[in-house]
Amino acid sequence: MAATTTRPTGTEDLLETAQWALERLGTRAQYAQAYAERTVEVRVECLDGEVLATCVEPREGLACMVREDGRWRHRAFSVAQLPSLPTWSAADRSAPGADLPAWPDAPDPRFTPVAARDWLVRGAAPAHSLRTMEDLTLRSIAVVDTDGVRSAGTTRVVRRRAEATVTRDGNRYRGLSRWLQRGPLAGTADRDAVPQDVARIAVEHAHDSARATLGGRHRTPVVFGPSAAVGLLHELIGHALEGDNFTMRSDYVAGLRKPGAVPAAVTMYDDPTLADGYGSYDIDDEGVAGTVTTLVADGELGTPLSSVRTAQRHGHPPTGNGRRRDYLALPLPRASNTVLARGTDDPAALLAPAAGGLLHVGCLGAGMIHLGSGEFHFAALNCTYVTPDGHRVPVRDVSLFGDALETLARIEGIGTDFGGDSVTCGKQGQMIGIGLFSPSMRFSALDWSAA
Asked: Looking at CB atoms within 10 Å, which of 106, 214, 281, 425 has the fewest?
């Protein structure tokens, strides 16, 4: 499973440290991997045009993973703990080698955040409160293993989020918006229009939420807008196709694997190579080159996403989807960017009113699916109820719930439009960033409730 990449300038020191660690792990292990990381995170939080907090967090260290006698062992070392690494592994403590390389200082992120007052939405009414967050992540990693991997990479991502709050009749209503930029110039361009655009959208969503009056429980057709559609499929299908989950002997995963469980109109893939994806990378956190993996093709399940451990343990082909929050955590099979291919339906036709009304979902929120039973519940944001005569009414505090297999069977249209979003996704306590890209999608009927 060897994979190598051309290492970028500035990561040679990390590669040297990872190589030193691998040599200390010895030669009798069936598999050994050393992962070195140097990350700087900067967060600036503002409230109503004033800086509320600034946080600079360096995160650096090394992790070792070894397979000995069929069993896996993992250990993370801070920079100060690195001299103790040779005594950790029982594989071969006598291996000769050079002294521990000097760990370099964290790089200057060269980041100029948006000025607090540049977030403010000029002329917006009625009055609102605006909380904003701008995050820079500058991350360099290096991975060396006994399968021949010797890889390094650097990513730079800036993510901006806005949360607007309006008060009406003593009640507070929120609206959210977010934006992402990645690449060597992230955080240095588009400084004039973008912050206000992000804030303006959040304010508009907050006003819509304040106007909402419809409540109760409903079953109607539901249309998910671009990116929201694949957000749902990422939860219903994507998590089940992570290598460790795919091997579960649960009723839901077994049902999902049956022919016809996913409609033939669905084609979905994982793509870490996208230029603007929150989960994009050249190499995963185990040094394997990122490549496109087909999850579903015309309704047929494809290859499960794998990390090194799941590939070796379950015989899955390597896909380069071993991801971790940082060096302290174990790499897990995780999505990078989940993409739903365009369909053939006119997006406007998908929103055609139904006899009992129709729900349009702009963004999927927090929630979960039980991979044993297939039962799910998710919050939905930026939602609109389309009445039978075509009027659009804002709704808030929407919850979607139901059975995943029954829900998948109700897909009745996929649009020709397309959109993307950046979200965080949790698994086993690790929150990581993923991208969501898709057209609109219509379901014939889903259960939902609104406050």
From this structure: 106
